[in-house]
Design a protein that fits this description.
- Helix content is 27%, strand content 30%.
- By secondary structure, the chain is of the alpha+beta class.
- Strand 6 (156-159) and strand 7 (164-167) form a beta hairpin.
- Helix 1 (52-73) runs antiparallel to helix 6 (181-195).
- The radius of gyration is 21 Å and the shape is globular.
- The chain starts with a strand and ends in a 6-residue tail after the last strand.
- 44% of the residues are buried.
């Protein structure tokens, strides 16, 4: 079975366990597939199960978990915990549930590690550029300057002892989980399927963040093809994923064009403008939450700073494609396989962690 995704092509070999001679064998497992709309994306799951009934139960549990996460973290739903924080934390410390507190701690941690390249407070700026509803507009510098006073991850204060969150700037801010929330939902599905003793599954969120549990029967991993953003239909690299995640951020589909200029949907929180001369970042990391956040941060940070960041992250690798479709530049950082490109590629292997 071949599935084409937005940022990667996932190839799944549908094989069964082969019975040995005279020995008791595990129950044969078949490959099942299902799709669910949530969090403004399409979540899909491929998993091996002994029968349809078991597969349906695992799928239902997984998609119910995605819906629960959306109710908790959506910035489109006024009733969500994240929306309540956005409304109230500017006037007083807000006590929140342990799960949401841990989620915010992780988000703020990535902001700190990336020197603000990743920032969950950029929602108002995204809206000003018209990216939330695919309208596309160019805001004035005065408008952006006014919005800057309502953004900035350093304005988020987390008190672990009281489990509260407050905004230091004293005004309402919008917390936007778009850069990390789908990765978190994938991790929650993975934890649930582990509890169900699922041995092989591939979870995809919006075709940009995936996690591989185990491997298909008879295989060493789930083969993942990374698309080349500068060459339509061409594969940049193929990797085998086992018990790890892969995320990709790209400007190949979500953008708008005004006066002949192309504006990418990924913004630099420091300049409040769309990133220029970047095409795609792909990250392999043990956690889907982390790989999701890292692709956004590295899109803003660029290659040299990204390489320094990854030195502190074991079992993490990245491919960065910068420049333009007509003149791309490729950078591989701790990437497990050579890149398939006609262009010169700088390979960085063996970067050690502290």
């Amino acid at each position: 079975m071949i599935r084409t995704l937005r940022a990667a092509t996932i190839l799944v070999a549908s094989t069964l366990l082969v019975a040995g001679s005279g020995l008791a064998q595990p129950e044969p497992r078949m490959l099942f597939h299902d799709v669910h709309r949530a969090m403004g994306s399409e979540f899909s799951i491929d998993l091996y199960a002994p029968n349809q009934e078991t597969a349906d139960r695992w799928m239902q549990l997984s998609f119910e978990e995605v819906d629960r996460i959306e109710k908790l973290l959506s910035n489109y739903r006024p009733s969500s915990e994240l929306s309540r924080i956005s409304r109230e934390a500017g006037t007083h410390p807000v006590t929140i549930d342990p799960e949401t507190f841990d989620f915010l701690q992780t988000s703020v941690s990535w902001s700190s590690r990336s020197n603000g390249a990743f920032d969950i407070t950029v929602g108002p700026i995204m809206r000003a550029w018209g990216f939330f509803f695919n309208q596309g507009r160019i805001p004035s510098e005065a408008e952006l300057l006014a919005l800057k006073r309502q953004t900035g991850w350093t304005n988020i204060h987390l008190d672990a002892s009281a489990r509260t969150v407050s905004f230091i700037n004293g005004s309402a801010m919008e917390l936007d989980p778009g850069g990390i929330g789908k990765g978190y939902a994938v991790d929650r599905i993975v934890a649930l399927l582990h509890q169900e003793h699922v041995s092989a599954a591939l979870i995809s969120a919006g075709s940009s963040t995936i996690y591989a549990i185990g491997a298909p029967p008879g295989s060493q991993g789930w083969p993942i093809n990374i698309a080349d953003p500068a060459r339509s239909g061409r594969i940049l690299s193929t990797v085998l994923l086992t018990d790890t995640s892969l995320s990709t951020s790209a400007c190949t589909e979500k953008f708008f064009i005004k006066n002949g200029h192309r504006y990418c949907h990924i913004l630099d929180p420091h300049t409040m403008h769309p990133i220029e001369n970047m095409l795609q970042t792909t990250v392999i990391a043990p956690s889907a939450t982390d790989s999701d956040a890292l692709t956004k941060a590295m899109f803003v940070m660029r290659a040299d700073a990204s390489a320094r960041l990854l030195q502190d992250l074991p079992q993490t690798a990245a491919v960065i494609v910068s420049g333009t479709p007509d003149s791309p530049s490729y950078r591989a950082i701790q990437w497990p396989n050579p890149l398939q490109t006609r262009h010169e590629t700088k390979q960085e292997e063996g970067i050690r962690t502290r």
